[in-house]
Specification:
The protein has four domains: about 5-140 and about 255-310, 3-Layer(aba) Sandwich (Rossmann fold), CATH 3.40.50.620; about 155-250, Glutamyl-tRNA Synthetase, Domain 3 (Glutamyl-tRNA Synthetase, domain 3, Alpha-Beta Complex); about 335-380 and about 515-590, Ribosomal Protein L25, Chain P; about 385-510, Beta Barrel (Ribosomal Protein L25, Chain P), CATH 2.40.240.10. It has a seven-stranded mixed sheet, covered by helices on one side. The chain has a seven-stranded mixed sheet with strand order 21-18-19-20-14-17-22, with no helix packed on it. A four-stranded antiparallel sheet has the order 4-5-6-7. The protein has about 600 residues and is an alpha/beta fold. Strand 25 and strand 26 (about 570) form a beta hairpin. The protein has 14 helices and 27 strands. The radius of gyration is 31 Å and the shape is elongated. The two termini are about 40 Å apart.
Length: about 600
């Protein structure tokens, strides 16, 4: 049965989904469909809405559309967990003729860098998604956010608290105990407003006071116990420079960003569920102050991706890179999207993965092998076949004339004859895999051993006659004789029946090349669960081989992906390949045969 990924590439290119598989419905899609059916967003008034011009410009033309956003904080590289969120947000926008914004949530000046902005843009593009004109930076809304803060103070919904950080923490209470009102809570609005302006104008020291929402210090939801909205932080921002010395808290900024961009469905991970009451409280208050127009965005939470054998915490990823447990942010062993790309994983494989794992409200773990299977399915459909001998030993065809060369023809793709065939030269001295010869074969071994015959794929049937060994008993060459009239594809070639077929390369025509075999970076399914996560690192996660490669591989372009027959899927390294000398990374094996490394 053909796999789903054998469907035409066209279906793939035109949808948000992997390899033409349609997206299964889920609870988020149900909400979107219900909102479209009820016309909730069609009733949106556009006149007078604040927000970025590009939203204003294209929104009224098609007011029924929905809007989602992917809002990374530019403080690290994107990882496989982000891919789930990206596919979800962009996928829904595409499927319901909406728009998805790429918004940098850059409200924290301290950890953010342009390098991260660039890498995030590259990763989302690489996954195949397009935000059109809707690229935004939360820092562009700082003026509005500040104006909203003044409005909240004036309406009695916020106050400046001059307690110390410790006092504020102590006053917040616990899960079982109510919090205590700050002595500044009931101060005059005018006084809070004056302090807020002084905070903005740099008249107070970092940490000396904060702006807090005035909600309910006895709320069972701690997030509603007068959360902090603004703090003083003299830090240079990567976009606004030193214009501000007060910065909004994430929980205050995020709902406003969504509302200004007219996001209809704000999809986020489950840890924000307890923040939803504050999200709604804030936007309702700002709408009451006439700063925002209804309908307001709706926050909907889904379970984040947890994947075995990797870490998906930015803090841990930064540690792996900075402490040089891997080579760079795009080390092929890292679960960053930059690493996955370099390793040879595909955008189509990620979209397929997002569809297969689906979205739900319940936290769960996904086996790493599920991701590998998606990559395999996508690569199987798209990657051309080539031959590489990874652990070469000579096979000498003693009865084949020295100096003679014949062309055999190997199909570029077994299921796509339209991709044609390529010539593979045959001669007297060949390279085969060391493991394809056994002097004393174990039971069920059908490859080369003295007296046995195998087919050299796309070539002749040969009969093994013996081997040469060095002083240590290591095999240095295998000998055989070929059987004329058995050349693949010629009449009568199949009359000699054999049980095994092996791949090979003509020694005079192949070339040596570097091939990197990656294993999982961690040897434990849950790195860090039992001990420090660094102790779960797999010490043998990278092996470098000097392989023999077929002539056609000389011209492989950086990032070109192939199936090396019988070995797996490989990708020409985007940095280390040189013209005429590609270096290959193994993306994934042909089958799921992974066993945990020993030790
Ligand atoms: P931070 O701790 O820095 O906030 P983060 O992983 O949440 O780390 P963000 O840049 O805030 O990073 O993430 C952008 C978006 O990606 C958010 O909407 C977040 O919910 C989503 N996201 C992050 N990790 C995952 C994950 N493992 N699975 C699904 N979505 C994720
Ligand atoms: Mg986050």
């Amino acid at each position: 049965m053909p796999s789903a990924s054998d469907k035409p590439a066209r279906a793939k290119a035109s949808s948000a989904h992997g390899a033409g598989e349609p997206a299964a419905s889920n609870f988020i899609r149900h909400v979107v469909e219900a909102d479209l059916a009820s016309g909730k967003h069609a009733q949106r008034r556009w006149a007078g809405r604040p927000g970025p011009a590009s939203v204003q410009r294209d929104a009224p033309a098609d007011p029924a559309r929905i809007r989602t956003r992917f809002p990374p904080e530019p403080n690290g590289y994107l990882h496989i967990g982000h891919a789930k969120s990206i596919c979800l947000n962009f996928g829904i926008a595409i499927d319901y003729a909406g728009a998805c914004h790429l918004r940098f949530d850059d409200t924290n000046p301290e950890k953010e860098e342009q390098e991260y902005v660039d890498s995030i843009i590259a990763a989302v593009k690489w996954l195949g998604f397009d935000w059109g004109p809707h690229l935004y930076f939360a820092s562009d809304y700082f003026d509005f956010m500040y104006q909203a803060a003044e409005a909240l103070v004036q309406a009695g919904h916020a106050y400046v608290d001059e307690q110390s950080a410790d006092e504020i923490r102590a006053g917040r209470g616990t899960l079982t105990e109510a919090g205590k009102n700050s002595p500044y809570r009931d101060r005059q609005r005018e006084e809070s407003l004056a302090r807020l302006r002084e905070m903005r104008d740099g008249r107070h020291a970092d940490g000396s006071m904060v702006l807090r929402a005035k909600i309910d210090m006895a709320s069972p939801n701690i997030n509603l116990r007068d959360p902090i909205l603004y703090r003083i932080r003299r830090a240079t921002h990567h976009r606004t420079g030193d214009k501000w010395c007060i910065y909004p808290m994430y929980t205050y900024a995020h709902p406003i960003e969504d509302a200004l961009e007219n996001v209809t469905h704000s999809l986020c991970t489950l840890e924000f569920e307890d923040q939803r009451p504050f999200y709604d409280w804030l936007l309702e208050r700002l709408a009451d102050c006439d700063l925002l127009l209804r309908p307001l965005p709706q926050q909907i939470e889904f379970a984040r991706l947890n994947l075995t054998y990797v870490v998906l915490s930015k803090r841990k990823l930064i540690q792996l890179v900075e402490e040089r447990h891997c080579e760079s942010w795009d080390d092929p062993r890292l679960p960053t999207l930059a690493g996955a790309r370099r390793r040879g994983y595909t955008p189509g494989g990620f979209r397929l993965f997002a569809d297969r794992i689906g979205v739900s409200k319940a936290d769960s773990w996904i086996e790493y092998s599920v991701l590998e299977e998606c990559m395999r399915d996508d690569l199987n459909a798209s990657a051309e076949r080539r031959i590489a001998v990874l652990d070469p030993v000579k096979l000498i065809v003693d009865n084949y004339p020295e100096g003679e060369v014949e062309e055999c023809f190997a199909p570029n793709h077994p299921n796509k004859p339209e991709l044609g065939k390529r010539p593979v030269p045959f001669s007297r001295e060949l390279w085969i895999e060391r493991e394809d010869f056994e002097e004393t074969p174990p039971k069920g071994y059908f490859r080369l051993f003295p007296g046995n015959s195998v087919r050299l794929r796309y070539g002749y049937v040969v009969k093994c006659t013996g081997c040469d060994k060095d002083a240590e008993g290591r095999v240095t060459a295998v000998h055989c004789e070929y059987i004329p009239d058995t050349m693949s594809g010629t009449p009568g070639a199949e009359k000699v029946k054999v049980k095994g077929a092996i791949h090979w390369l003509s020694a005079a025509h192949s070339h040596a090349g570097e091939v990197r075999i990656f294993d999982r970076l961690f040897r434990d399914a849950h790195p860090g669960r039992e001990r420090d996560f660094l102790e779960d690192l797999n010490p043998n996660s990278k092996r470098i081989l000097s392989a023999q490669l077929e002539p056609a591989l000389k011209d492989a372009q950086p990032e070109e992906r192939f199936q090396f027959e019988r070995h797996g899927y490989f990708c020409a390294d985007m940095h280390d390949s040189r013209p005429g000398a590609p270096v290959f990374n193994r993306a994934v094996t042909l089958k799921d045969s992974w066993v945990p490394p020993k030790g």
